[in-house]
Amino acid sequence: MLDNIQKSYIKKESIYGPDNYKPLPVVLSKAKGVWVWDVNDEKYIDMMSGYSAVSHGHAHPELLRVFHEQSSRLSLTSRAFYTDTLGPYLETITKMTGFEMCLPMNSGAEAVETAIKASRRWAYRTKKVKPGKAEIIVADGNFHGRTTTIISFSSDENSKDDFGPHTPGFISVKYGCSKSLKAAINENTAAVLIEPIQGEGGIIVPPENYLKEVRDICTKKNVLMLLDEIQSGLGRTGKLFAYQHSCGNCSCDIGCKPNQPQESKPDGLILGKALGGGFMPVSCFLSSKEVMQWMNPGSHGSTFGGNPLAAAIAKRSIELLDEDKLIENSKVMGEYFKKSLIDMNSKIIKEVRGKGLWLGVEIDPKYISGKDLSKLCLENGILCKETHETTIRYAPPLTISKKELDWAINKIKSVFEEVEKKLPKTK
Ligand SMILES: *Cc1c(COP(=O)(O)O)cnc(C)c1O
User: Fold this and answer.
1) Would you state the pLDDT for residue 427?
2) For 198, which DSSP code?
3) Which of 273, 331, 338, 385 is catalytic?
4) What integer pLDDT is reported at residue 260 of this predicted model?
5) Is 133 designated active site?
6) 108 CB within 6 A, ligand 1
7) Which pLDDT score is estimated for 251?
8) What would the mean pLDDT of 94-105 be, rounded to a whole number?
9) Burial letters for 43-62: b for 16+ Cβ neighbours within 10 Å, e otherwise?
């Protein structure tokens, strides 16, 4: 329950900041690993992880060490000069992902913008699309960020309403349906931009063959396949990248070998969130030399993009995925978590979707709203938030131990039981 201390912080936020978020009623003050404490030292387990940005857990000791070391040595220079951190980071991330080049940015939306710009340039200069005609195909229910261009192709009315005029050049087709995607392609199509699993859309997992079919269509039609793995990438789904779930003969269980054949490998990959190790905004666009060759001096950039602190943190963040076995833990704990949720057999739960430690629990709004359930979870020590009103997303740090997960599962179970107890008896 809120006391006066918490109320005063909440009041300040609402007096001095606009209402563009509706936070849950808790005021957080510190965190370590999967645990978070409010200003009164009440403890919660973080099943939200900053929308998947805190995959390494809060204040990961090694990242904290890098953060201290790098920020006391050199944190910001701009890209007007070379640094001793950017090259090694770019080398590490391209080798690890199997892409030729990486363009560093800060927020996820900026990396999506970068992908849009790079693929349009490629379309005009390599594919020879007529000036001003390039089109990008996206999917209904997408979430790619909040810039004026990106909201132009959102299907969520409130995110775009009265923010127009909107940017033209985008065509939205049904998610998960490669047929409608194929039908939307014409000679002006530069790229297809999709999420391998839609996160904000409610953890929507497409049909198994979808990405492979999209890959085939894009190859045949000379269209770039761009995947937004800002939320799904870097181990969240139990593989390095979510697209690797549909890479038929990839022999690596957790998808960590970039040189194996990968049937659904995109032409461009967008990363963010967990790339910053839970410390800072770090994003990037990865692609081939063929695409990146057109990003010449003056065409694109960012004051903070690729700064020494970001580069040092991002490099260690991706190295730790392997060193700390985070991808494997995501896979193993995720399967256990999913099974535990299904085994609860709660009539409030309509469906459990997702892969790895990225689960969407579809609740029956007849019994309780997503918002009220999130609040109830909060009161029971679980930080989580609904997306699309009826989906509760559980996405703990990938470092979570079996013991910590069991703690969460027990709490979640008692929340569902509490709701069921309050239900009017059905005949
Ligand atoms: C969070 C997210 C973004 C936007 O990232 P920001 O850092 O908030 O700009 C884009 N795409 C996907 C899939 C996301 O989950």
Assistant:
1) 43
2) B
3) 273
4) 64
5) no
6) yes
7) 53
8) 97
9) ebbbbbbebbbbbbbbbbee
Model confidence, pTM? 0.96
From CA 258, how far away is CA 99, in angstroms rounded?
A: 8
Go through the chain and tell me how many residues it has.
427
* C-beta of residue 363 within 8 angstroms of C-beta of residue 350: yes
Q: By C-alpha distance, which of 237, 225, 229 is closest to 263?
A: 225
pLDDT tens digits along 126-147: 999 999 999 999 999 999 999 9
Name residue 31's amino acid.
A
Residues 307 and 284: their CA atoms lie apart, in Å, by 12
What is the whole-number distance in angstroms between the Cα of residue 245 and the centre of ligand 1? 21
Q: Please state the φ and ψ torsions of residue 240, each to the nearest 5 degrees.
A: -55, -50
Beta bridge partners of 352: 361
Q: To 10 degrees, the CA torsion angle through 316, 317, 322, 328?
A: 170
- Candidates 148, 125, 123, 126; CA nearest to 134 is 123
Amino acid at position 147, single letter: T
What count of Cα atoms within 13 Å lies in the side-chain half-sphere of residue 115? 35
Q: Is the CB of 270 under 6 A from ligand 1?
A: no
Q: Is the dihedral of CA 223, 197, 401, 339 positive or negative?
A: negative
